[in-house]
Amino acid sequence: MAEEVERIKCLIVGSGPAGYTAAIYAARANLKPVVYTGMQMGGQLTTTTEVENFPGYPEGVTGPVLMEDLRKQAERFGTDIRFGIVTDVDFSAHPLKVTVDGAKPVEADAVIIATGASAKYLGLPSEERFRGMGVSACATCDGFFYRGKDVAVVGGGDTACEEATYLAGLCNKVYLIVRKNYLRASKAMQERVFKTPNIEILFEHNTLELLGSDETGVTGARLVYRKGEPDQAEKEIKIDGFFLAIGHHPNSEVFSKYVKTDEQGYIITEGASTRTNVPGVFAAGDIMDPVYRQGIAAAGSGCRAAIDAERYLGELEAQKH
Q1: Which CATH class is domain 121-244?
Q2: What is the residue extent of each domain of the chain?
Q3: Euclidean distance between CA atoms 32 and 238, whole angstroms
Q4: Does the active-site annotation cover 141?
Q5: Which architecture, in CATH terms, is 6-118+248-320?
Q6: Catalytic residue flag (residue 171)
Q7: If we measure between CA atoms, which residue out of 180, 176, 222 comes closest to residue 200?
Q8: What are the residues facing 88 on neighbouring strands?
Q9: Which tens digit of pLDDT belongs to each residue from 233-274?
Q10: Which listed residue (10, 109, 141, 286) is catalytic?
């Protein structure tokens, strides 16, 4: 027998700062929100150790504690939080149809997509081992912890150059590890990097492994120059921090059949709103923000998405009467 379809007023997909903030606002507006957490309950921030730039925590807070606080706040107002992954959607008509975990059918009057974006990693076992112990994918979040130290940034695009110059203002030395023999970044960004005395660019280098221990975290990196060439050579650099800036991957595939995205897969919203091209579908957080990618910015857009959803549902209700 087919499973009975559950009808939800406001469905929130994702449980990072955007999803939980949307839930707090939606619950207080009596929209009875249901949150499906996705694979990583609490989102990207749960993989971060110290968070010092989220307002309201003067002493700083760990990522997991911050997300636990947001979850409790959402639940306090009646949010129904469920562990589950949205595996399919049909946004061709209303109510909006969603499938959870490949089996459970759900219908929603409004959907807020807050599935975030995942940082791209090189895929090294040592990178996984030292994640949060010297390996980071966000210089703005973690650069402060490396004041006066030596660090490396991987990448050759605008983000990598931006992160390298940001870190150069805090750190003793910054290595920029670039796979190719040129930078892909815009001319202006390249100029800034070339003019920064404590950035050393290592063109045509690849990272083989990160060095360190469970006690010390990252202490260095082993690199190879001109990988695969007859004149390839290996070398080690001493570093305390290893920053990845090779891009992010927005988690939008399941929605992109109906919801408009840019070339990279970020959901396109209308003007300053969180509205997508599908009526009743809203997007908040890193899924629609390739620029700022900060927890507090995501939380702010979650608030906006809930308010947009509330207005939309109010209009729907008004049309019925």
Answers
A1: alpha beta
A2: 6-118+248-320, 121-244
A3: 53
A4: yes
A5: 3-Layer(bba) Sandwich (3.50)
A6: no
A7: 176
A8: 99
A9: 999 999 999 999 998 899 999 999 999 999 999 999 999 999
A10: 141
